[in-house]
Amino acid sequence: MKMDTDFHMAKGEGETGYINNSRFQRKALFETKRVLQKAVTGLCSVVQPPPGNLVVADLGCSSGENTLIFVSEVINAIRGYPLEVQFFLNDLPGNDFNYIFRSLENFKKSRSTKEEHRHRFTFLGCQGPTTPGFSLPKAFICFTHPIVSTGTLRYLPPHGLDVNSKTYLNKGNIYIAKTTPLSVVKLYQDQFQMDLLLFLRLRYEELVLGGNMVLTFLGRKNEDVYGGDLNHLSGLLAQSILCLVHKGLVQEEKLDAFNLPFYGPSVDEVKAVVRESELFDINSVKLFESNWDPYDDSEGHSIQHSIQSGENVAKSIRAVVEPLFASHFGGSVLDELFKEYARNITRHLESEKTMYSVIVLSLQRR
Ligand SMILES: C[S@@+](CC[C@H](N)C(=O)[O-])C[C@H]1O[C@@H](n2cnc3c(N)ncnc32)[C@H](O)[C@@H]1O
């Protein structure tokens, strides 16, 4: 599992690509609109004209329309301020930067009204994991907005659960499940704390005093580390892999060796790490819920079209994990795997409509 090559989203404009399967992330982006606006306008008054220079970074921009929505939100928020803005669009080397820069050209043309001519915008691609060794330009006023879910806050798989260690401590599971030993839960939690702390330290170096950062990522509604919706979602995925093991398409050892490089924290866990860092003040933190099916905007407890919803959820998850799964299980089993996953999701949704818990955290650098 290599971050540079395996952690990016599914490429291309086809049926399984992230570009066409990122509606959940878009919905999350709309939910963060107010927090984002507040953070940007808060900075505008600090940046000194004439003309002030605001540096905005989208960490984990991926490729697709969502980055354009993010850029629009920022441009709308700074309307009225005589600012020059530099956008740094950051993602891993495997990301399709060409697509995003092609869309930006059209976007710039479509927005060149008189009002916007008062601002000057520059867009720069910024390739590299947001980990040690990588750094955004320093000494700028910098607003950092990694969106969403498994964004740049994607964690490494816990050390000790490393595939190469050959000690399969979490057999049959790919994340925290009912049969996951407490020692493995602890590995996940320690890795989460270590990675978030490191992320905060690195961003602290890049942000100027008073700079803002809005983080949006999947989390957990309750404190029960076994009981979040991500546990369900990954449990159903593990079941689907097991089905392929039974069909002889995947070796059992491959399933035993795989652990998602991800942890869904509770709000309290996140707050505790931020406080421990002593680097940022928490402006606000909230948790909102969003239906698993990104195309289901209903608010009730019932699912209207469970088969379609199962397929929608499976496609949106595939778009995020495909490169990772292809590297570990092999690309040839993915169609079968995600068909099985869609069926499992459908069965689950028929008994219980389930939602993601999304945490939106707005931080200010001390
Ligand atoms: C779920 S996508 C979100 C994309 C986009 N912001 C959106 O809202 O649609 C997460 C993105 O984070 C990127 N990513 C994951 N880990 C990263 C890291 N350490 N550094 C930079 N980008 C990373 C992935 O490649 C992916 O494009």
TrEMBL record:
Annotated keywords: Magnesium, Metal-binding
Any single Pfam family the record assigns to this protein: Methyltransf_7
InterPro entries registered for this protein in UniProt: MeTrfase_7, MeTrfase_capping, SAM-dependent_MTases_sf
Keyword Metal-binding: yes
Gene Ontology molecular-function annotations: metal ion binding; methyltransferase activity
Superkingdom of source: Eukaryota
Keyword Metal-binding tagged: yes
Protein family according to the UniProt entry: Belongs to the methyltransferase superfamily. Type-7 methyltransferase family. SABATH subfamily.
Name under which the protein is recorded: Uncharacterized protein
Natural source organism: Paspalum notatum var. saurae
